[in-house]
Amino acid sequence: TSSIPKSHLSDMSRPRGLVIVFLVTSASAPFDISPDGSWLTLGGYDSTIAVYDLNELVAAARARKSVVDIEPLQEINYKPAKNPLGFIWSSHFSKASSTFVVGSWNGYAYVYDVASPAEARKAKKISPPRSRATAELEPPRESGRMRVLSERGRIHFCGGSRVYAVHVADDGNRVVVGGRSLSVVMYDCSSRALPPSPVWTAEGRDFTYTVALTDTFCAFAGTGRVVQVVSSPTGDSLFKFSVARTVQSICMFRHFL
User: Fold this and answer.
1) CA-to-CA distance for 31 and 157, rounded, in angstroms?
2) In this predicted model, what pLDDT tens digit does every residue of 102-153 receive, in sequence order?
3) What pLDDT, on the 0 to 100 scale, is given for residue 101?
């Protein structure tokens, strides 16, 4: 994020293709690029998601300029004032780049509508967001040059359990969440007027560190050393298999599904 030391952030010289390298010392730092190639996001143990204009980074790298001095377009900090744990372990863009979801240790997953570059330029100044304060949590704090992410909804996960893993469906309307709970939950996030609502709940073996979602399957795993696969539409268990160690990441290849 913007707090990464300059010695750990650089662009490569004389690449065959253009390569921009972010070397992050944080133990966990989700790194996402929107499928349309517009935005790059970074998160981690500073409890902040930073949104960058990917084309701005590319232009700087092509000009052999350091990307370290480029400020993020938008930063959102999730650290509660009364709780030091707002770490970001997971984030994900939908296939159409229209939805972005962030999972935080503060017990919430945040669902955002994503602006196009043209839409973001029309609203350069970030004003205080519409208040969504609750008894459990104050609103995230925002800053930056323009608003790319606008909050659509907020998921209070399993009574406030830490969120370790999130994945948004291709349609941008369904989000699966896992974390410091035995439960993995699918939510319907299609409404802008109503809060996200649970669709199904699947029970895991232990804490969930990673989830992956397609139209057909949802796979998840973590400290229980078991990979479980359920039906994406219904949450019904399909199969599971044991592994030798804690699972940190899962990916499902679409052309097999």
Assistant:
1) 22
2) 999 999 999 999 999 999 888 656 655 444 444 455 668 888 888 999 999 9
3) 98
Distance CA 57, CA 136 (A): 37
Q: Are 219 and 252 in contact (CB under 8 A)?
A: yes
Q: Identify any residues that bridge with 220 across adjacent strands, giving them in sequence order.
A: 211, 228
Query: Which strand (E) or helix (H) includes residue 212?
Result: strand 208-213
**Residues 10/65, Cβ–Cβ less than 8 Å:** no
- Identify which of 170, 102, 166, 114 has the alpha carbon closest to the alpha carbon of residue 140: 102
Closest CA to 51 of 118, 179, 142, 162: 142
Strand, coil or helix: 163:
strand
Global confidence as pTM: 0.84
Measured over the CA atoms of residue 207, residue 137, residue 109 and residue 43, the dihedral's sign is: negative
Sign of CA dihedral 171, 173, 174, 179: positive
Q: Give the side-chain half-sphere CA count within 13 A for 149.
A: 32
Burial of 6 (0-12, 13-18, 19+ CB in 10 A): exposed
Task: Reduce the DSSP state of residue 250 to 3 states and report it.
Answer: coil
> How many other β-carbons are positioned within 10 Å of the β-carbon of residue 173?
18
> CA 200, CA 151: separation in Å to the nearest integer?
23
DSSP per residue, 50-118: EEEEHHHHHHHHHTT--STTPPPSEEEE---TT-S---EEEEEE-TTS-EEEEEETTSEEEEEEE--HH
Q: Are 250 and 210 in contact (CB under 8 A)?
A: yes
In contact, 56 and 62? CB cutoff 8 Å: no
Intervals of the chain under pLDDT 50:
1-16, 25, 129-135
